[in-house]
Structures are given as C-alpha cells and as structure tokens.
C-alpha cells in the first residue's frame, strides 16, 4: 500500500534578516581625524612601546613590572578592539549596548589603572636594581605617563559624550 507524504515548508524571516544584516561593514575614515580617534591611535602606538620595552627585559624577576605588563597589554588589546569597533561603525549595528557608558567606563578604568602602573613603573626603576635594563625601564615609565595622559583625555571626551546623552 502506498504511503502518502505530506511535506510542509515554512518560511522564516531569519534568512531575510540575515542577508540584510550581512552587508559590508562601513568604514569611518573621519574617526581618525577627530581628537578621540587621534588619542586612541596614540594610546595604541605608545602602549605598544610600554610593553615591548618591558618585555625585552627580565621583567618577570620583579613583580612590579609584571603588573605594568599586565595593564599595558590588557589595555592595548582592548584599545585595538575599540578602535576596530569605531572604525567599522559596529556600534551602530548593536544599539542595545550603551556605548557612551561603555566608553566612559573603559577610558576611566584605563586612566586609573595606567596611572597606578606608571607610578609603580617609575618607582621601580633604579640603577641598582638591574643596570643593563635601566634605560628600557626608564623609557617605559616615561611612555606609560604619556599613555596615561592620553587615556585621561579620552576619559574627558567620553564623559562629555556620556553627559550629553544622559541629559537628552
């Protein structure tokens, strides 16, 4: 006896949404021309200097430099991540995230922890500690303070942006 088969096809709106949302990412060239964009690029370049100057030494023998390395590498990776987010305008595709608050928390925490790391770095640099690493550690200390000032600038701009969003 032949069996009858019933085939039911349903259409989902998921595929339509998927194809609409998978269009090419936007690229915001103008972001790099703004002061926050320039500060972010400076944070990346000088943050890279901070951790490479320390990484080229025997920093692992001194816990203070391990802390500086942690802060420098952690915020370097996150800053690169946020630069990609801003350059590709991904924040416009994820409106559920409060980007102004996220930016303020990120830049504020980077400022505070980098300030602590820069102070620890500067206070740990002595010629008696390890004379052949002195110049690298002194340079990393200088650049850590410069990166700290960049993060303080971006914290200010993030605060202004956050404040203007909360007043609306």
Write structural notes for this entry:
This protein has 168 residues and is mainly alpha-helical. It has a domain at 27-96. 68% of the residues lie in helices and 0% in strands. It has helices spanning 13-21, 35-55, 63-87, 99-124, 134-166. The protein is elongated, with a radius of gyration of 23 Å. It starts with 12 loop residues before the first helix and ends with a helix. Mean pLDDT is 85; it is low at 8-22.
Sheet having the most strands: none
Total number of strands: 0
* Helix/sheet category: mainly alpha
The N- and C-terminal alpha carbons lie at a distance of: 72 Å
Q: What portion of the residues fall into strands of 2 or more residues?
A: under 5%
Radius of gyration: 23 Å
How would the global form be characterised?
elongated
Total of helices = 5
Q: How do the SSEs run, as a string of H and E? A: HHHHH
Mean pLDDT over the residues: 85
Give helix % range: 55-70%
GO molecular function, one term: structural constituent of myelin sheath
Domain MARVEL: 31-163
Organism: Eolophus roseicapilla (Galah cockatoo)
Protein name: CKLF8 protein
Briefly characterize the structure.
The chain has 168 residues and is an all-alpha fold. It has helices at residues 13-21, 35-55, 63-87, 99-124, 134-166.
Topology:
Elements: H1 13-21, H2 35-55, H3 63-87, H4 99-124, H5 134-166
Keywords:
168 residues; mainly alpha
